[in-house]
């Protein structure tokens, strides 16, 4: 079973270096950093190797790792890209389940040893996963991964369901566009195209996309449609978090969103409904390489 993510620890090491204004050539002891961050040597070593690849530190044979340049010359990563320890663990837990590295039933003690996190942090992540409907709590300290998000069939069925009901929501008798909400969606999508695609976290990107589809469905004024879309959005998080590791397809997604908004604003409701169906079907097609890893 995998350990805690090296990228998150690498960020913490950079913060440590900059906060202490360390000069170039400073020795970064593996055991010292392990004690500092209350983890074992293995994740520290992985994080230092990552920083060596990025040119922040240099590795010297039989001597260890040394700072490559003064702390003042190290540019920290954009804050909007940083993930909290809980976010990082949440994504890793999902990824490891998708990869088949975690059994269907797990205990908190197992996961604490595996990821080297305190019970409070782990519990928050597990509760979040349960709230997102891909884990459930068992009696005692046990947890079970729900099968829906590790099934290729279920994932594709979810997208086909969305492609069926979201366009129909736009054709409901009670459908009414809220101009203020529509302009808010337009501003969000334009901000993504203007640069936020590269700076927002995976969670924020997912929420922006989900909000777009939920607001459009909400214009139907049919609570059953909206409840259904919200539930599907919650259970598709796991694979969609992975998909945003590659952000190259997101500009096209935003342009398609803006086109649908243009159609709605000009009263072309039927045309917007058909374009939304094509959009959702296209989203699944673009993610087939991700879905294919599911068992």
UniProtKB/TrEMBL annotation:
GO molecular function: DNA binding; DNA-binding transcription factor activity
Alphabetized PANTHER family for the sequence: TRANSCRIPTIONAL REGULATOR, GNTR FAMILY, UXU OPERON TRANSCRIPTIONAL REGULATOR
InterPro entries named in the record: GntR_C, TF_FadR/GntR_C, Tscrpt_reg_HTH_GntR, WH-like_DNA-bd_sf, WH_DNA-bd_sf
Descriptive protein name: DNA-binding transcriptional regulator, GntR family
The HTH gntR-type domain, residue ranges: 3-70
Pfam families in UniProt: FCD, GntR
Keywords: DNA-binding, Transcription, Transcription regulation
Origin organism lineage: Bacteria, Pseudomonadati, Pseudomonadota, Betaproteobacteria, Neisseriales
